[in-house]
Model the fold of this input.
Amino acid sequence: MPSEPIKQVAGTGVYVPGDDIDTDRIIPARFMKCITFDGLGEYLFYDVRKTEQGEDKPHNLNDPRFQGASIIISGSNFGCGSSREHAPQSIMRAGFKAVIAGSFAEIFYGNSTNLGVVCVTATDADRKVLADAVEMNPQLEITIDVNDHKIWFGDQYITCDMRPGARSSLLKGTYDPLDELLEGAEQVNETAAKLPYMSA
Amino acid sequence: MAQSLFEKVWNAHAVRQLGNGQTQLLIGTHLIHEVTSPQAFGMLRDRGLAVKYPERTFATVDHIVPTNEMTEPYSDALAQGMIEELRKNCADNKIKFFDTNTGQQGIVHIVGPEQGITQPGTTIACGDSHTSTHGAFGAIAFGIGTSQVRDVLATQTIALNRLKVRRINVNGKLRPGVYSKDVILHIIRLLGTKGGTGFAYEYGGSTFDNMTMEERMTVCNMSIEGGARAGYVNPDATTFEYLKGRPYSPQGAAWDEAVERWKSMASDPDCEYDDVVEINAAEIEPTVTWGITPGQGVGINENIPAADEGETQSERDSIAEALEHMQFAGGSPVKGKKIDVAFLGSCTNGRLSDLKEVAQYIQGRKVADGVQAIVVPGSQVVSQIAVELGLDKIYKDAGFEWRGAGCSMCLAMNPDKLIGDQLCASSSNRNFKGRQGSPTGRTMLMSPLMVAAAAITGEVCDAREVFGVGAAVTV
Ligand code: SF4
Done:
């Protein structure tokens, strides 16, 4: 079951400021008491968006100008903390297709890529140019070109980076690795047979 | 050629290279819990796939169990649903489940080692970022997401990029009242919360040689807080001593063979590392976090930084954001912050040695008025031994609540939560905004003894002064 290749992601953006946006912030643990991922989109950035009384806080994520955005622009070390896949699941289910950050935490990056959520890095200066442009014109169409390492907006672009494995699997539509892993079953058995603790 | 433990384990478990350049890596031991596994079993069912190595998968329940309510059904129907789902998934797939009635249930990273499931030279995966804990035994242990839990269940492998290895040498004797928790908080303060991205941390040097297994686990546990997906200590006599005779440890002749094999997996003395960091143990102070990332820590006698002390704009922004959330003035001493809650527990510091160490100091003392102090053993085994030693009584006499085993107030998935903007002195591993259950709740991470000192005085203080540990050092 190979997935659709992802060569480009296009849409409008929303700026979520801050470094070290951890996965507890992306999806607070109290919303993880579930046995399916359905419905997680609703709780994305819940405590960032809502007061304890459940009212909207002033935040770009609540600003009608940025409704319908499908690309998150944020700071460094995005997705640090817990390994919960609930984080990229809630991002995806809230309608986001990509995150542009200064850097990503490792587990989050892998989890997102497996789901086909595109994660790219760009420099602080470039992300500021992009965030300012989005602030000026919330309807600005942003296009992330996975193949070309470029993010286009209006008539300008910034360069972006992604991990080599992620890039190739997005382009080939093999970002969900399960099929390929299953194909290796025989070699898995051979490797296991060589390990005394696995064959015992 | 000389190799590090990481390289040896990686090479022994590498199945093949995948089309995107990643490695298909065999996972020797798979640990699962109720939060990140149900969707994985669901995906397996959707695809009609079976669990490939059920005997290499072990389950426990930890995040959602109420620690003050021992009988089911739990008052929280969602929690009840999750434990039942896990029970069913394990039964259907013939997976060993350390259920709440076995006397062996507990936090997954405590259960694995104490059952002898965690062994040197192996690969371990679990849908939980603190899987790095198991590296204390010289295993390469990764936290994974739920889709990867599915991958391990179906294929016993995951797709992974090879990590680089940073050797962190800590040499010398820790001063009295300084613990392994301070060592890791100090390392993260030095190298940052993203310093470890792309690396496995290999911890070594005389300080680690002299640590017990439980102390090593505390350090490896928080590797992920420094951005390193895995962290490990080379196996040695201390490791083998700990594992000997545990329920899942090899027995008889197999034990001797295993020890020989484990020894051979340790890093060769002249192997090369991608990076090396040197730390002098004598410089490490009892360390406390003042902010909202585990890297925002200071020594107990230092002041909290002011926003303008950040070197870059983003650092200044981060400090300002943390100060605002914590309601602390930049430049004020970290000492003297009034606490509301003291939490002793979690996979970082909920082991028997943690409970024993603190108990010897709190005997005859009382928790300060207005402070809620809870002590949560990391597993039923820890709890049972602690009770046999009479530790529960010492804690209760001092005014602590003695709870059942689980994650408790480390995260907000069970009834133990901060309320409003309560300030908590916590022996856990994360101080993120909202981590302990209230969006405005505030967490300060520290060693168990520092938590106890805060509980007794009602404020963040130097445990060495409060308990007269060694000669208290004033700087
Ligand atoms: S104790 Fe805390 S960090 Fe450890 S597994 Fe439980 S929730 Fe995670």
Observations:
- Chain A has a mean pLDDT of 95.
- Chain A touches chain B through 66 residues (CB under 8 Å).
